[in-house]
Amino acid sequence: MKVAVLSVMKAGVNTVMKFRTLGRHAREGGKNIYRNGWMTVASVGAVTTTLILVGVFIALMLNLNQIATNVEKDVEIKVLVELTAEEGQIEDLESKLKDIPEVESVNFSSKEDELNRLIESMGEEGQAWELFEQDNPLNDAFVVKTTDPNDTFDVAENIKNFDYVNEVNYGQQVVEKLLSFTKYARYIGAALIIGLVFTAIFLISNTIKLTIMARSKEIGIMKLVGATNSFIRWPFFIEGMLLGVLGSLIPIGATVGGYYYLYNNLRDKIQFTFVELLPFNPFAWQLALILLSIGAFIGVWGSVMSVRKFLKV
Amino acid sequence: MIEMKDVNKTYPNGVTALQGIDLSIAQGEFVYIVGPSGAGKSTLVGMMFREEKHTSGSITINGIDLNKLKERKVPQLRRNIGVVYQDFKLLPRLTVYENIAFALEVLEESPKNIKKRVMEVLDLVKLKNKARHIPDQLSGGEQQRVSIARAIVNHPKMMIADEPTGNLDPDTSWDIMQIFEEINAKGTTVIMATHSKEIVNTIRKRVIAVESGRIVRDESRGEYGYEI
């Protein structure tokens, strides 16, 4: 009788997994990688192909986003002050500009500053303007920046009605077009990346489903021998994760290497334009981490979803 | 040990496989289940480890009431029952050793105990030299011995064999029967569904005959009783 009680206890279903069992599952999952041979190659291939696309796309989108942000930062409103305005009136105007809630910063630029900047920007030809230093025809100006670049238009129209304002410049149509372009570019980019990730998940879970379908009989046998569902599921979980990680290695190498090459070659050529790429370090490593995570996630997701169907024996 | 009271089994397609089964098997017995093909032998033994679910009546196995057994606890039932099939049901990609060890791994035994115990049963079924082979490299008799080793490796209280000699030649069948007798001699209940007249009439044990889903005969030291 005592023996019987003992053996019942021994055969009881453990709810808490022992640590060495986790080790066993990891080994099993690893072994399945090579036991599955070509199926492994197919799954890893599917992950690789899609992640290369995702990687290139993320790099492209984040850089476009960076460029758009830089451009937006440069959007400013130039308020030219009436030539006849006196010092006190200019100060009034400044405080009025600062009181607009959407405004982030207001900088005064005297007509001397304006002339100097003009001379500098024109290089050799600019020297002709030096003649005007004695009799400066330019206006004093305020450079106004809004917190949200999208408010530029409304704020500029508002400022036009202020006293002592001669003219308001903000590159009207250019700014509007640019802003709507960057807005849509972001939406479309985000949608495409999400679409690609889901395509990848679908592709991979289908491939993994094939490898598991071939093993549905084995899963049935395991259950008849007394394996619990989680005991069967764990090696698949680890196998899926390994597949995803393996599949992300080539995309990581390709995107990191490719970005290194492009960054070093393009940086000098575009140095003086408003375009500025995200620096290789840390961007490339962040990208690598993102790809690794996506790979592991879709591998695990694909295999756990697929094995669920076959556990009902 | 095994108690069945008024057990019925009807498949979803309306076919009645078993009806009014009353059965009691004590610990340590050796029982043959005989009967024509399609009489319900496989269904009867399958219900004992929840490969098949009965439709009505009560079944108690090793003190577990199957009517109250939750799906989640089914592995607990199966771990106390070693099962041997006609088609062996070995995991094709695992070695002989790994196949047997699997039944202990699900119990989360320590690797040291697993190794010791697997070697013991490999010795019992005389397959120590084939431990690293995969099932496809073995003969039918050898594969059946592996599945028997797997069935008994965790010291189950009972062993169920569904036509274990169905795919084997006569000589091999006698080897297998010898192993069953050894297991039974150590106190394990053995329940064996079979078609083999020679075996039943030579190794005399309790015989339960099933026909058209009903128990028609239950004799200790009985005969096969059918012409093949």
UniProtKB/TrEMBL annotation, chain B:
Give the keywords, sorted. Answer: ATP-binding, Cell cycle, Cell division, Cell membrane, Membrane, Nucleotide-binding, Transport
A single Pfam family, by name?
ABC_tran
| A Gene Ontology biological process term | cell division
Subcellular location(s): the record lists: Cell membrane
Q: Which PROSITE patterns match?
A: ABC_TRANSPORTER_1, ABC_TRANSPORTER_2
Residue span(s) of domain ABC transporter: 2-228
Please name the GO terms that the record assigns under molecular function: ATP binding; ATP hydrolysis activity; transmembrane transporter activity
Question: Any keyword Nucleus?
Answer: no
InterPro entries according to UniProt: AAA+_ATPase (IPR003593), ABC_transporter-like_ATP-bd (IPR003439), ABC_transporter-like_CS (IPR017871), ABC_transpr_LolD-like (IPR015854), Cell_div_FtsE (IPR005286), P-loop_NTPase (IPR027417)
Q: Name one GO cellular component term.
A: plasma membrane
Q: Coiled coil: is it a keyword of this entry?
A: no
The family note in this entry says:
Belongs to the ABC transporter superfamily.
Question: Known PANTHER family for this protein?
Answer: CELL DIVISION ATP-BINDING PROTEIN FTSE, IMPORT ATP-BINDING PROTEIN
- What job does this protein perform? Part of the ABC transporter FtsEX involved in cellular division.
- Assembly: Homodimer. Forms a membrane-associated complex with FtsX.
Query: What protein name does the entry list?
Result: Cell division ATP-binding protein FtsE
